Amino acid sequence: MFQAYFGVSYADARARFIAAAHKQGCSLRSYVNTAGPGIDGEDLSTDVAYYGDAQARALLVLTSAMHGEEGYCGSGCQVALLNDQPLLDRARDHGIGLLFIHALNPYGFSWGHRTNEDNIDLNRNFLDFSQTLPDNPHYRTLHSLLLPATWPPGPDNAAAIKEFIDTEGEQAYREGVMLGQYSHAQGLFYGGHTPSWSNLNLRGILASYGKNRERIAWIDYHTGLGPYGHAEKVFVQKDPAAYDRAKSWWGADVVSVVDPDSSTVDIGGTGLRALLEECADVPELTFMALEYGTVPMDDVFMALRGDRWLAVQGAVDPGRRKAMKVAHKAAFYPDHDDWRGAVIGQSRVSLLQAINGLSAG
Ligand SMILES: [Zn+2]
Asked: 289 alpha carbon to ligand 1 midpoint, in Å?
């Protein structure tokens, strides 16, 4: 039954989301991205559905596709909640409004990239661009190794990367790659030089719907890191009281990015900043990213590097291109019912816990 919540393409996921939101009588707004059309000629749009009392004191926000093709997972969880009458009733009965933001990065979702129409990683794009941008010297060293002239990379390439890790350390490698970089516009994990369309759009949505609330919680759905089907509860706020609250709601397995156990690194420029800035008047803000594991990290990373390599190449054999795109999609959306079941089950628990947390006090 979970299959029905998940789209097979961006356009299909969007249609399922809009149909489910209509069925529940949600108010709906669409924000069309002019970088369209999408891969099937469709409009590219971030769609926003609101369920519950417009004046509710508490708000629970769910977002999908911060990272383009990761959107299948978050979209499925959003549609699942729109079909979950007991949870919807519980939220409404406790004075909680539900804000579904579908496809923050519709371009990447549609075209099968993690990044947006300008190769921007949205979760590295929420910075103050009037300030000097962070430098990532390890990325500078790694760039040409990560995106070599020929693909797949040969043994020399693997040896050179291994040498970097042996010399600089595993943490330097992870940070070099994942921390984000602002020097190579065609590179991996590029954060941009200006606020992207999706950044400004998200800010506007949060400012508008977050106004006059007393408490806001936000769950942002991601995929690609950690064990298959497991949702790591990633906490990125720096406020210790918010961390305590997040653990009291969601459990002892909430992992702060500064904890050594986390699969992620403490990146700057995440979307959290939009919430902290646009809803600064709201007394209580609680954010968690759910990061679902897919395939082994080496495979995810090869798929990401391959997708970037494809994007900067001119002509690539169509069969080969297709195989690489299939591998990329599988790295962020394993097309298996056991995975979908694990995703929906853990999402439902986190949503119930968020509703309970927002109801308390
Ligand atoms: Zn992500």
From this structure: 9
